[in-house]
Amino acid sequence: FKQKTAYEIYQCDWSSDVCSSDLTISGPYELCCKPGRKITAKFNLQDPDGDWVRLVCPRAYDVQIKANTISFTAPWEFTGQKQITVIAEDAWGLRSDEHILTIKSSENKN
């Protein structure tokens, strides 16, 4: 019987953006935002092992992250939609499956 090292236990395929783990993330999948306005979305991050977990938004440089909440300020010319990838990551660097949040432009009806 050979005991595995911590590296072998938590090793994942680093050629992929997402490593398999038992972390879960839940939250909204679609929100509407008026141009020039700020929108926030809260996510529930869980790790059955009770480890520390943080929220990560790779490749989203216009998104602010604070604890388990993200915020996005839509530019004044915001039309169409924007997709933001949201991931839970633990202290070991293991990540949950990707959660895609779609923010759609909503025009003022007044």
Q: Widest sheet: strand order? A: 2-9-8-5
Q: Largest beta sheet, briefly?
A: 4 strands, mixed
The SSE order reads HEEEEEEEEE
- Overall spatial form: elongated
Count of DSSP H/I helices: 1
The residue-averaged pLDDT reads: 81
Compute the number of strand runs: 9
What gyration radius follows from the Cα positions, in whole Å?
17 Å
Structural class: mainly beta
Termini distance? 71 Å
The share of residues in extended strands comes to 35-45%
Low-confidence stretches: 6-19
Task: Give the % helix.
Answer: under 10%
Topology:
Layout: H1 6-10, E1 24-26, E2 30-33, E3 38-42, E4 44-46, E5 53-56, E6 63-66, E7 69-73, E8 81-90, E9 99-105
Parallel strand pairs: 2-9
Antiparallel strand pairs: 1-4, 3-7, 5-8, 6-7, 8-9
Which key terms come to mind for this protein?
single chain; 110 residues; mainly beta; four-stranded mixed beta sheet; three-stranded antiparallel beta sheet; 1 helix; elongated
Summarize the structure.
The protein has one helix and nine strands; from the N terminus they run αβββββββββ.
